[in-house]
Amino acid sequence: MEKVEQEARKRRIRNRVQSAILITLATSGAIAALAVAPAILGAAGMVARQSGRKFRYRARTAAGRLAQKGLVRFVEKDGRKWIEITDKGRRMVELETRKAAMRLEKRRWDKRYRLVIFDIPEERKSVRKRLRNLMRECGFLRIQDSVWLYPHDCEELVTLIKAELRTGKEVLYAVVDSIENDGWIKKHFNLA
């Protein structure tokens, strides 16, 4: 069990470093590859915990992973290697920012539910799984396997998710005034 916890901790650290790189690139444009380690890891709050060599290694491997995912690219300018964020990386930052904002927002309920309904074919199983994970991370309630509910306006987020996953007509967003026997839903979201 301890090994599982260690792996989960390592994964969280990797994700934090990758997020810090993306956010830094999104706000500053491009940065020199050699400057990545101190700037990024400092932003991620990891400066005091590790040696400089480990900083650079972790930042470079995280940047490499982001490049493999197509979120950043390495470019050469004036004989120096730079890291730039791609359009896909910008969309990812925007999606993550919107998800975080949704979790923090406290809004008055307008007595309407937002449904996300999807029908993604079996050959795109990984996209379907990613969509379900995103719904869960954003605080949606699963009504059925392909039907998720949220009590507040989230059309922008759903549009970002559809663009990121390239789902188009496979994902529908609906606003409904009532759902029968919705007491358990109100209880789940503390709406009563």
Q: Taking strands numbered 1, 2, ... along the chain, how are they ordered across the largest sheet? A: 5-6-4-7
Counting helices, strands and paired strands, the structural category is: alpha+beta
DSSP summary: helix tally: 7
Order of helices and strands: HEHHEEHEHEEHEH
Q: What is the helix fraction of residues, given as a range?
A: 40-55%
Rg, rounded, reads 20 Å
Assign the CATH class of the largest domain: Mainly Alpha
Termini, distance in Å? 40 Å
Say how many strands there are: 7
Proportion of beta-strand residues:
15-25%
In terms of per-residue confidence, which ranges show pLDDT below 50 for 5 or more consecutive residues? none
CATH topology call of the largest domain: Arc Repressor Mutant, subunit A
Tally of distinct domains: 2
**Architecture per CATH nomenclature, i.e. the level-2 architecture of the largest domain:** Orthogonal Bundle
Largest sheet: 4 strands, antiparallel
SSE inventory with pairings:
Layout: H1 2-28, E1 31-32, H2 36-43, H3 52-68, E2 72-77, E3 80-85, H4 87-104, E4 113-118, H5 125-137, E5 141-144, E6 147-150, H6 155-165, E7 171-176, H7 183-188
Antiparallel strand pairs: 1-3, 2-3, 4-6, 4-7, 5-6
GO molecular function, one term: RNA endonuclease activity
Domain Transcriptional repressor PaaX-like central Cas2-like: 107-177
Keywords: Antiviral defense, Endonuclease, Hydrolase, Magnesium, Membrane, Metal-binding, Nuclease, Transmembrane, Transmembrane helix
